[in-house]
Amino acid sequence: MESKVTTLADACRREQPKERQIVLVLQGGGALGAYQAGVYHALHEHGIEPDWIIGTSIGAINASLIGGNPPAERLDKLKEFWTRMAYRPPFAVPAWTGVSDTIAYWKTLLRGIPAFFEPNAGAFLGTHVPLGADSAGFYSTSPLRETLTELVDFELINRCKPRITVGAAHVRTSEMRYFDSRDGEIGVEHIMASGALPPAFPAVRIGGELYWDGGILSNTPTEAIFDDNPRKNSLIFAVHLWNPMGQEPSTIWEVLNRHKDIQYSSRVASHIARQRQLHHMRHIINELANLLPDDVRNTAEAKALTAYGCPTVMHVVRLLAPQLENENHTKDVDFSPASIRTRWQAGYENTMHALSQAPWEVETDPLDGVILHEPNVVLEAAE
Q1: How are beta strands 163-170 and 52-55 bridged, if at all?
Q2: What angle do CA 298, 300, 306 make, to 5 degrees?
Q3: How far apart are CA 82 and CA 79, in angstroms?
Q4: Residue 134: which residues within 8 A CB-CB, separation 6 or more?
Q5: What is the pLDDT of residue 327?
Q6: Please, which pLDDT band fits residue 3 given cuts at 50, 70 and 90?
């Protein structure tokens, strides 16, 4: 009986297409997700539509807005969603005072966002008040359900063009679960589960089980690509909202900001480094297999060993959202129009720069299976 490894690798070789798929990976990050919309805006203008979108939290929401609409309507639906998210203060306040940001922050905490979430009155009666497992959160996300139902065509999502994958954390087992339109139907509850960040939002029940925001376990779900079966040649636009690098904090306010960046930036650098090692070895195995005489290569023993190889090449383009001037730990709930506009524009410009450079088109070492590109780091250094 063939081993599992042999079966997976053979499937990889049999079904490996010559062309590469376009993959868009979207982190969680609340209001920072406007940067992702700018990234898609640039891709769309270049006629680049993703074959596969993997998202967590706000990334899952943006993924549903893209995949749940025809290409000609995707950008408009993204703009409509983010317009609904934007908070406008009732009176004009000069931006330089910082008062506008403070007002927006407290308004969001106290009143929510009409198209996203609203306070759960029972939760503010005390932390020990029995709310029920399906309602245990400071806010209700019922408004988000209505917004997504209006803006997203889930029948279109389930046609799997593009393929949509969203990550969620299983509450009972603390295991990561990826809901994939290739393997089963995606509904509004899957998108909401992926964004159900506790204790703000209650868990969402799917198939009798409760799920929380996938960002708790993996806020940058690139592993879903490397673990896919069959693996395919891929051009991956990995959109990162949280900066892994930062200054040493000297105040509690700065500590809160740096802590959140570290917590949600994930371990993408170590993940990529590990995958580069694994894919390098897979390519070496392929090269060694080609050196074997036919009578040896075709034996059962040789096939079992060479099955660990795989010919896929994956280019990872890391697009990192810039840190705005004077931003702090409240940035992920800063849904002010100015912040949304600035982050959208940053995503658009960084992606346009990456597309103009197209480093993934440069010839690479045939033994390299995973190549990391960071074009917007060059852009920031030049400014």
Answers
A1: parallel
A2: 70
A3: 5
A4: 202, 203, 204, 205, 210
A5: 87
A6: very low
What phi, psi does 378 have (nearest 5°)? -65, -40
Over residues 317-326, the mean pLDDT reads 90
Task: Name which of 87, 31, 86 is nearest 57 in CA terms.
Answer: 31
Strand ranges (E), the chain: 21-26, 52-55, 118-119, 139-140, 163-170, 176-180, 204-206, 209-213, 234-240, 314-320, 370-373
Whole-prediction pTM: 0.87
Q: What span, in angstroms and rounded, lies between the C-alpha atoms of 55 and 195?
A: 10
DSSP code, position 200: T
CB-CB neighbours of 303 under 10 Å: 16
Q: What is the share, in percent, of the chain residues with pLDDT greater than 90?
A: 60
The Cα–Cα gap between 267 and 219 comes to 9
Residue 241: closest CA among 43, 62, 102, 109? 62
Q: Map tokens 């400071």 to a residue.
A: 138
Question: Which residue has tokens 């480094």?
Answer: 273
Asked which of 54-58, 93-97, 103-107, 252-256 is least confident by mean pLDDT, the reply is 93-97
Average pLDDT of 347-353? 97
Could you read off the pLDDT of 113-160 as tens digits, one per residue?
Answer: 999 999 999 988 888 999 999 999 999 999 999 999 999 999 999 999
Compute the distance between CA of residue 187 and CA of residue 67 in angstroms, rounded to an integer: 12
Residues 6 or more apart in contact with residue 367 via CB below 8 angstroms: 280, 283, 284, 287
The token pair that represents 60 in the structure block: 């899952």
Whether residue 129 contacts residue 120, with contact meaning beta carbons closer than 8 Å, is answered with no
Give the 3-state secondary structure of residue 61: helix
Q: Give the closest residue to 66 by CA, choosing from 28, 30, 31, 25.
A: 25
Report the alpha-carbon distance of residue 284 to residue 101 in Å, rounded: 54
